[in-house]
Amino acid sequence: MSALPALAQTQTPPLAPADAGTRSEGAASVPAAPEASAAGTEAGAKSLEADLAAYFTRAAFDQGILRVTPDPEGYRITLSVDTDFSQLGEASSGHIRLGDYSLVVSRRDDGTWFVRGLGPIAASFDMKAADQSMTMTYQVDNMSYSGIFSPEVGSFLSAAGTFDRTTMTQTTPQSEVDAKLGPQSMELNAVPAAGGGIDFTYSQTGSKLSETINSATDPAHPDQRFPVDLKAESIILTGNGAGLKSKPILDLYAFILANASDEKIIAAQDELKTRLRGLLPLWDQIESAYAFNDVSISTQVGRMTADRAGFSFSGDGVETNGSYRYVYDFTGMTFASPAIPDWAGELLPNDFTLAIGADGVDLDTPARIAIDDFDIARDPPISDAAGERIAAIFKEKMPRFSIPPSRVKAKDYEVTLSGDLRFEFNKPVATLDIKASGVETVINRLQAAGQNDPRALQALAMLQLGKGFAKSLADGKSQWLIAVASDGSVTVNGATVKGPDAPATDRFPTDKGNGVPL
Mean pLDDT across the chain, nearest whole number? Predict the structure, then answer.
C-alpha cells in the first residue's frame, strides 16, 4: 500500500494533520474570494521574489523553476520544472517534469497573505542508475483552494479546498503501482499559541480509493508477480496540535539553505545548535488519525474486507517525561481464502483493537546531548562518548510501556486485555489482565472440527491447556491475570508457573583472598 500516504497527504499545507470539522476559536476564516487588492507591480514582484528566495534558493528563480509576476489580483507565483539529471554518473540519468502551476497571492492589511490556487497539476519523474530504474507519474485533475498565510507565525491561519481525481503510477523492474483517489476536500485552522507556536486543527477527506500493487516476490524472477488490489470507499484524515513551532521550523529550513555548503555550515554550526535548541519541544501535544471505510484487500490467496480500518497517534513533544499512544482499530472484518478451513474462518476476529502506550519517555535530554556534542567537521559528527551518555540515559530511565484496554471479538467469543511493563533495576516487571467470553463455545467448535481436521485438535489442546490456568468470573468469563516479577518469576492468577531465576554466579570462581581465578 505504498501509495496511500502520498494520495492521502499530498495536498496538505505545510502543517501536520488536525481534527476534522473543528475550527479553532479565533481562527481566521477563508474568504470565498480575494479581498480587494491593488494590482501587483514589477517592484513588488522583485521584493516578493527576494523573500521567497530565502526558502527556495536564488537558483530556483535564476533557472526559471519559480517565477513571480504582477497580477491584477496581486502577484502570480508559478512553478515549472523540466530538469535533466545528467551528472549522476556513468550509465545514470534522471528527469523530472512539472507543468506550470500557479498561485495568486495578495498582501492583506494585517500583514498576512491571501493565497489562491486553481487548475490541474501534473508531474512525472524517471531515474536510471546502473541496472535499476523507476518511473513515476502524479496528476490531480483540478485543485481549487484558498487560504490565509501568516509570515509572523510561519503557517497558514486558515485554508480550505477541494481536489478532483488524483492518480499516481510507479514502475520499477520489480513492481508496478497504480493508484487512484476520487474527490477530496480539506480544511485547516490555526491560531497563535499562548506559549509560542500555533494551535491548529486539520481535516481531509477523500473518496473512492483504488490501488493495485503488482510486485515480484523474488527479485531473481521479476516476471513472477504477486498482485494486491486495495479499495476503500472513503478516507478520513483528522488531527490537531498545540504549540507547534512552525516559525522556528521554517526559519531553520531557510538557515540551512543559506548555509548549504560544507564550509558555511561548519562555520555556522554554533548558530545551528542554538536554532535546534530553540525548536524543542517541537510541539506541546499532537494527535492524528487515519480512517479507511469499506475496505477490501484482494490477493491470489484470498480476500479481506473491513467496515473500517483505522490508525491513530497522540503524543507530547520532545520532553523529559513524555507520553505517547498508538491505536490500531479494525471493525467488521471478514476473511475468505481457500487456505483457511471453514472451522478456522468462523474463529477469525471481526473486530480488533490494539492500543500501545509509553510514558515517562525522556527524549529531551538525549536530544540536547546530541545537539551540544555534534561537530559537522568530525566523522562521525556525534562522538562515541555522547553516544554512550545517551545510551546510559535510556538504560537508567526506562519508559513505562502499557497496553491500554484492547480487544479481539469474533462471532462466538470476545477477548479483552490490558497491561503494563516497567523496569526495576533493569529487570522487567509486567502485568497482563486477559478476560475472555465464549471459551466453551470455541472448545466445542474445535472438538467438532477435530473429527475431520487434526489441526483443530492441536488448537484445542492449546486452548484447553490455557483454560486450565483460568479463573472463572461471576459473569461467566474466564480471566488470566499474569504477573512477571523482577526476579523472573511468573504467576497466573496467583499460581506460580515459573520460579525465580537462579542467582547469577561467577563463571570462574576466584580465591576470596586475592581475587585470582582458582
Answer: 89
